[in-house]
Specification:
By secondary structure, this protein is an all-alpha fold. It has one domain. 68% of the residues lie in helices and 0% in strands. The chain is globular.
Length: 136
């Protein structure tokens, strides 16, 4: 049941990304271009995500445990360190250069282009680098 729920959640997430325009790198880059031809339409997507998450967390945490799991898995660290800040900076640079973040990039694989392929390769290399750095 957990696997099925994971697939359903992933499908809903991917559909939401596609319907909202988050899989269109031109729209994302337009949103990030605040000093030029700014496209504010994704502000509504981000705002909707924040409101949904806020309400969802309030409802979910009224339960003692998840419906299809033994316990909630929440991060325990709350400090800012160089790895977190460096990772956030790399994420932002990659998002700004390509117009894709990981979710929309994976949701866009069906329409694979050379820039998307390059971004996916860089993302996978980043995962391996992060694993290697965290082990040391």
């Amino acid at each position: 049941m957990r696997t099925l729920m994971g697939y359903i959640a992933g499908l809903l997430f991917g559909l939401g990304l596609a319907i909202s325009g988050m899989t269109d790198p031109a729209r994302v880059l337009g949103f990030l271009d605040i000093a030029g031809r700014w496209d504010p339409t994704l502000m509504f997507v981000l705002g909707g995500a924040v409101v949904t998450t806020f309400i969802g967390y309030r409802l979910v945490f009224k339960r003692l445990k998840p419906l299809w799991g033994d316990a909630f898995q929440l991060p325990t660290r709350q400090d800012l360190d160089a790895k977190l800040l460096g990772g956030a900076a790399l994420f932002g640079i990659g998002w700004g250069l390509s117009g894709y973040c990981p979710g929309p990039a994976i949701a866009s694989i069906g329409g694979l282009t050379l820039p998307l392929f390059a971004m996916l390769i860089a993302m996978v290399l980043g995962w391996f680098a992060a694993r290697r750095l965290s082990a040391s």
